[in-house]
Design goal:
Blueprint: H1 20-23, H2 29-51, H3 57-62, H4 64-79, E1 82-87, E2 93-95, H5 100-106, H6 115-129, E3 131-138, E4 144-150, E5 155-160, E6 163-168, E7 177-180, E8 184-188, H7 200-203, H8 205-223, E9 230-233, H9 242-253, E10 269-272, H10 277-280, H11 282-297, H12 316-342, E11 351-355, H13 358-361, H14 365-377, H15 383-389, H16 410-418
Antiparallel strand pairs: 1-2, 1-11, 3-4, 3-8, 5-6, 6-7, 9-10
Length: 419
């Protein structure tokens, strides 16, 4: 599950990357590291006491709806082609496929990961924790040639004047150390201060904790044969036979006998000590939590294949366009701008990053045919431009706009009259 490998900071954390309260405490670096573990454990204990359960990284990924939202966004962002574009005179942009930056972003950000794997990991961390980090490796000319992703839990950000310093834990091996912002790619989610984005695990803790608690309650119920907790009661005195009767009742109602009807004496009757699923509205609670978790991650339930009667789409294409506009577009914009700032800053020429979102923006076949027919007929597009949008090869005759027979220029009209 790397980079989701450590939800708590380790004892090897650098002393200068610790919270100020820990830094100011007396003792050696090892003692401070132990103090940090106690500090983190105390924080988790407080959150757990307040909510009954603490949801960390792996617990969030074990929650079905949360995991579906996180990987839906991460997979879609990773699957879209990320192109390095070059502006030309006149404002037109073309793919800069001959540049090293194109290979870095489109094919291989480092020898260990493909472009899909890199963006999937980074986006998943940003969605789950609000921040994602990657160390920039440069060549002698200052151009970025490698991007090495880091685990969010192993990075701490501190402010140094107008700059930011990134402290990377020793658990990252050769990548451990202190980096200036010029050497770190930092993808942020929602933020108020601009130092780090809000940690989604903290902001969504109540929603995730309730969802986890509901899942655990239902799992425990099914583990017990969907039998509500309770006790046996009787008006008669059992004397010294309490343990014998208890053992007999356990054998009669446990294991393969739990669905059989026991024959009871001594006036014993079962008294439930908990509400039934109907009384607790368990199904309604689970359905409501699906909507709550989807709202936290800004994902339409229908995109996850869930039955969402509040959303009505005329087609799958319309639903995916809504997914692109409402869910993916902020993340795509964040990626494009952070790459422009952190990766293409040393590149020669006016390069910029751009996601190709045509697959999500496509209308139905009939709608596309009508749209291109109108655009080509009005000479707004050439036939080859329309064919390129459809992924078709250029035609030898398609570079010039089609001219309807009833349209001509003023000069052509005068020439015709003279004839």
């Amino acid at each position: 599950m790397w980079p989701f490998n450590r939800s708590l900071r380790s004892a090897a954390w650098a002393a200068d990357a610790m919270p100020k309260a820990v830094q100011d405490s007396p003792g050696s670096r090892e003692e401070k590291a132990k103090t940090l573990d106690e500090y983190t454990a105390e924080r988790v204990a407080l959150l757990q006491a307040a909510r009954g359960v603490y949801v960390g990284e792996l617990a969030a990924l074990r929650t079905a709806v949360a995991a579906a939202c996180i990987w839906r966004i991460a997979n879609d962002v990773a699957a879209l082609p990320l192109l390095t574009m070059k502006r030309q005179p006149g404002g037109k942009a073309v793919e800069a496929a001959e540049t090293r930056e194109y290979d870095l972003l489109f094919r291989r950000p480092n020898p260990r990961h493909t472009a899909f794997e890199f963006r999937q990991m980074m986006t998943a961390q940003a969605v789950l924790r609000g921040n994602a980090f990657a160390v920039k490796q440069r060549d002698r000319t200052g151009r970025v040639v490698r991007l090495w992703p880091l685990a969010k839990s192993e990075v701490s950000v501190v402010q140094d004047g107008v700059d930011l310093l990134y402290h990377v834990s020793a658990y990252q091996g050769a990548l451990s150390g202190i980096y200036a912002s010029a050497d770190m790619l930092h993808l942020r989610g929602q933020s108020f201060a601009g130092l780090e984005a809000l940690d989604r695990l903290d902001t969504a803790q109540d929603t995730l904790a309730l969802s986890v608690s509901a899942e655990r309650a239902q799992a425990n119920a099914f583990k017990n044969g969907v039998r509500m907790p309770g006790y046996w009661s009787t008006d008669q005195s059992m004397g010294d036979n309490v343990e014998v009767i208890q053992e007999r009742l356990t054998k009669m109602t446990a294991g393969n006998n739990q669905y059989k009807s026991p024959l009871l004496d001594l006036g014993l009757k079962w008294e439930p000590a908990a509400m039934s699923f109907d009384d607790a509205q368990m199904i309604e609670t689970r359905k409501h939590q699906i909507v709550e978790v989807c709202a936290q991650y800004n994902v339409l339930p229908a995109v996850l294949g869930l039955d969402d009667k509040t959303q009505a789409y005329g087609s799958v294409e319309a639903m995916m366009r809504g997914h692109l506009q409402h869910t993916l577009r902020p993340w795509l914009t964040a990626w494009e701008q952070v790459l422009d700032r952190d990766v293409l800053d040393g590149a020669e020429g006016p390069l910029f990053a751009k996601f190709d979102t045509n697959e999500f923006e496509k209308a139905s076949a009939r709608e596309q045919a009508e749209a291109f027919k109108t655009l080509v007929g009005l000479t707004i597009m050439t036939p080859n431009e329309a064919r390129a949008k459809l992924g078709l090869a250029a035609a030898p005759w398609g570079d010039e706009p089609l001219r309807p027979l009833n349209m001509s220029t003023g000069q052509e009209s005068e020439d015709g009259d003279d004839a």
